[in-house]
Amino acid sequence: MPEKTLIIAEKPSVATDLARVLGKVPKNGDFFENDEYVISSAVGHLVELIMPEEIDKTYKRWTLTDLPIVPKKFKLRPIDRTKAKFQELKKLIKREDVTTVVNACDAGREGELIFTYINELANGKKPVKRLWMSSMTPDAIRTAFANLREADEMQPLQDAARSRSEADWLIGINGTRGATVQFGRRGGTAATVGRVQTPTLSIVFQRELDIRNFVPRDYWRLVADFGIHSGEYQGYYQKPDFKKGDDEHDRADRLWEKEDAEKIFEAVTNGGDAEVTETKKRTKQIAPRLYDLTSLQREANSRYGFPAGMTLNIAQALYEKHKMTTYPRTSSRALPEDYGPTVRNTLSQLEGDYTPHAQKALDNDWVHTGNKRIFNNAQVTDHFAIIPTEVKPKKLQEKEEKIYDMIVRRFIAVFYPHAEFDVTTRMSVVAEHTFKTEGKVLAVPGWLDVYGKATHDKDTLAPLSPEDGEPAKAKVINVEMEEDQTRPPPRYTEATLLAAMEGAGKLVEDEELAEAMKETGLGTPATRASTIDHLIKEKYMLREGREIVPTTKAEGLMQFLKAFKIETLTSPALTGEWEHKLRDVEAGKMSRDQFMQGITEMTDDMIKKLNSPPPKQKSSIKSPTDDDFLMEDHRSWHSQDTIEVRGRSIPSLAVNKVIGNRKMTPEEVALLIEKREIGPLDGFMSRSGKAFSAMLKMVQKDNGSLRVELDFGENGEGDGDIDLTQYPVIAQAPDGTNVHETPNAYISEGKDKKGKPSFRMSRNMLGKTLSPDDIKKLLSDKKTDLIKGFRSNRTKRLFDAFLVLKDGGGIGFEFPPRAPKKKAAKKSAKNKTAKKAAEAETSE
Question: How far are the Cα atoms of 103, 130, 302, 586 from residue 108, in angstroms, in the given order?
Fold first, then answer.
């Protein structure tokens, strides 16, 4: 019986490619086989760690007393949906004629885990070798087969893969169970947490708090128009001896006191001509480094709005299906130092629009292996940067073309010289006050030539000329005072969130500093996209345009975790440190036992904090039950006095912080307790995700306690029971029937096909009470007057808008046009005279 080698790829398409490249290996049912090889594949993960209830049936019930759950040995099970595939591979591994097994799964930590779990659950005892590919071209595959790696060489990577999987299990299982029990099953769903996903959510939520708590500050800028012989130019006032300090909003051109701005305005307006000096210097801009996966995802999101997961899938297809680029799941932005010949060969093979640019790099001998920004073994780990292969371009889909074009142009541009700019800085001094003007023009395209940038751009700054005198003089034509406000930080996009994850919560734009911080980032390039997608799937975040926005569910979880001081799940920096330790395991610098011991201790600490009494603080709201202040914790406001119910003490009065997926404010709670009802309020959300309005009422339960209930009558549920004739008619609905003003809503007598009012408008919308005059205006003119002071449910910001009645009967917002920047003064008579003089001078 001939001895055979079993090759297990991660996906069927890769198995097909291997069978084709290794010679004539015909299909034999679900796998390929000849006298030398048996080639099959997984379909991603086939095996998983067993769940707690499979370890012990008592774990079916989630309790804090059972935590932490730390298995002595982590056991495996086949994933149900792919069980048949696992059984097929198990049979192949057990075949007597198979003497060696080759792991041909993706060359990375996750590929290592996929194969390791399959082989372990199949009880594989045969020698294992590793196929390590950075490219799927035929030559690269043959080279990889000629250099198979030994199992011992792969042990650190396998240790890291197992450790990552088990650490995620320990933190995820114990954290989710503990948080769900202590935080409560909100709406019947678990409070899912994770080692990487929850610190990532913490980054997004903290930015939302920064935006919500931001207090804008007024500032003023002075802008002046100056006239010289060759034309006009504009300059902005600069504070003398300005130095950047701790105030991130401070700028050289911002004045924080209106009086200061007005004094300077008066001085400059009446200050005569400006004395002008300028300096010119040439600056250089180096080409950006080659892409790793994260930088590719960031730029694709910024340029095209592609979600990170989409970019990963496209890059994977370019590598695996089209063979046109190298392995995408890389964290490296450099190439091996011996890769010079491959680079030159790849450049020589590029076709179409790329040919002249690539040929220029070759003709000028710009490919230098001594350039450590490009060729650097110390910055190449398992894989190098993403670059094109020598495979000729084929027909690609539009999105694939865009990603391929990004990769190819970056690959060519990195070898080009710097782009050079001529920068002019002009200072115009009037009455001892300085105004700054800058001009910038591309002088030498360098690497920008690859992107179609040329030097035909002209400097738009009017040049000084001998006619302006020595020293140069300029007429002050116009001076204006602009009023503006500081703005909160922007919400994260996927591009900026990926960067923040890479920097463990810090947005780092400098390439060299970002490279140094990679080792302590959250997750890996291969997992960051799926982390973002999972948080969106679990409804902790949502995409609004290109922005990433946390939900009410996220806010509740974050406040809960921070109240219990569970830094394990809320600190991006701490999680980043553990990611670094995981990489140390992968590099053989730290043992697997050491890493898992630390994770186990961290899990113990997390559960101890969850078992501690919930932190409470005294609020400023008084309870009618004992005339004392309500206590506030992560879940609710509740009275200090209690009543006995079924053998246990419960607060006499309690108001949950989140009701119907809507966060309550202290002001609303105080009013609810005082009036015993409040509303109707907007912003509630049903389990199905449908928004609704409702009244909140404080009711006395049968056990004597005071609790809050939703009253759905004002949301239309009980409109059919209302006798509209007892309420005044205020307007006519679009269907011609009368509209009545009821205590909770404006309701028409007419019905739609479903038997509901043809027009219905809650009296309260986003914190504003709508008056009968508003409804009259809406129905008669299809548009109200401007209503000020709506409060967004999502951002909690105030905004102004018109309500409009749409053709289909729906209600929408129309926003007023954005006001131009305020100008505190107009041109003075002297300014107009100066302008005429400058115009006359120019025309001579």
Answer: 11, 11, 27, 10
